Amino acid sequence: MAMTERQNGLSATAPDPDQTILVAGGAGYIGCVLVPRLLDRGYRVRLLDRFYFGEDAIASFRDRVEVVMADVRQIPDGALDGVDGVINLSGLSNDPTAEFDPEANWEMNALATETLGRQCLARGIERYVFASSCSLYDGLPPGMHAEDAAIEPRAAYATSKRYGEEKLIEMAEDGLCPVILRNGTVYGWSPRMRFDLVVNTFVKDALVSGALNLHGGGWMWRPLVDVQDCADAMIAAYEAPAEKAGGEIFNVVHSNYQIRELAMIVAGSVQLAGREVRLEEAPAPKLTRDYECANAKLSTTLGIVPRRSVLESVTDMLEKLEGKDPAQLTDPHYYNIRWLELLCEVRPALDAFPAVL
Q1: Integer Cα distance of 357 and 341 in angstroms
Q2: Sorting pLDDT into bands at 50, 70 and 90, what band is 350?
Q3: d(CA 247, CA 170)
Q4: Taking the complete model, does pTM exceed 0.85, yes or no?
Q5: What percent of the chain has pLDDT over 70?
Q6: Model confidence at 349: pLDDT above 50
């Protein structure tokens, strides 16, 4: 069934809903929000994932999608048969997981991104939406950074994402229509919930310990976006005319926040529910990320304006967590690096390394 209401710049119905989209990493934090939205717009979805976090997160739409359980580094023959376009969310998702095994990070975030693009070219699949990251702007001088900034990625995660961007854009000359989305730090509720993202972490800490640590005073800036707005941006990127979006890079950001400001928003929201929350100073981390990103190109070109604020999203998370034992929020399943470490303890071989987190 196609959408009947206009939502955040998206047309009321998909331009051609009789299409099959391969969503690589579709069982992850963003994918579990994106896939139901694609289904509601009338698309057929083929979901490719390793399911190292299990299949519970896709239970609500499992019977509506075709599932390919596979490593993005080893996409099986036939996975792209009948596919009209690709949305690639696969790979390692942040600095800690990338630094845990830089070789695997490079294989998944860089090389597999390129290989999937070449597979699309070979099959005449044009549209390829790639989930990149605003972390590519880290290390630049203070200021508001747009998509044309002279980036110099310095961390393993950002370097691998940049390689993927560059290779896909090169393929545009051969007929691929890549659309690159540099997502800000994502927040908000997902069926495959994570509590290792700054806003979500603050919500968890407020409920579990009643204390929020402000590392280095919390004065660093970060670009942020809600997971629902992130999903809408991906749909808009998939549906946008090639002349507008092909070979283009878009920052996906609701707003830029200081970490201290985020802590105050979460603390105030939790205190309204009757819990005491303290803000505590803590030493600065070894790697301090501090950058701001402009978001005008996304709205002026694709008509998408991320609208869900941190306050709205935190309120939603608290409602969904009401009545839940706070101790359950520390389960390693909610933390990519902790779950990865646990898996490697029981499956130390490299071929057991999770390819889609």
Answers
A1: 12
A2: very low
A3: 9
A4: yes
A5: 93
A6: no
According to DSSP, the β-strands at 255-258 and 221-226 are antiparallel
Mind listing the pLDDT tens digit for each residue in 323-337? Answer: 999 999 999 889 887
- Burial of residue 309 (number of CB atoms within 10 Å: 0-12, 13-18, 19+): middle
- Quote the CA–CA distance of 64 and 77 in Å, as a whole number: 22
Q: What percent of the chain has pLDDT over 90?
A: 78
H, E, C per residue of the chain? CCCCCCECCECCCCCCCCCEEEEECCCCCCHHHHHHHHHHCCCEEEEEECCCCCCHHHCCCHHHCEEEECCHHHCCCCCCCCCCEEEECCECCCHHHHHHCHHHHHHHHHHHHHHHHHHHHHHCCCEEEEEEEHHHHCCCCCCEECCCCCCCCCCHHHHHHHHHHHHHHHHHHHCCEEEEEEECEEECCCCCCCCCCHHHHHHHHHHHCCEEEEEHHHCCEEEEEEHHHHHHHHHHHHHCCHHHHCCEEEEECCEEEEHHHHHHHHHHHHHHCCCCCEEEEECCCCCCCCCEECCHHHHHHHCCCCCCCHHHHHHHHHHHHCCCCHHHHHCHHHCHHHHHHHHHHHCCCHHHCCCEC
Nearest Cα residue to 231 out of 36, 5, 3, 22:
36
> How far from 227 is each of 75, 252, 313, CA to CA, in Å?
26, 10, 9
Confidence at residue 174, expressed as pLDDT on a 0 to 100 scale:
96
For residue 284, pLDDT beyond 70: yes
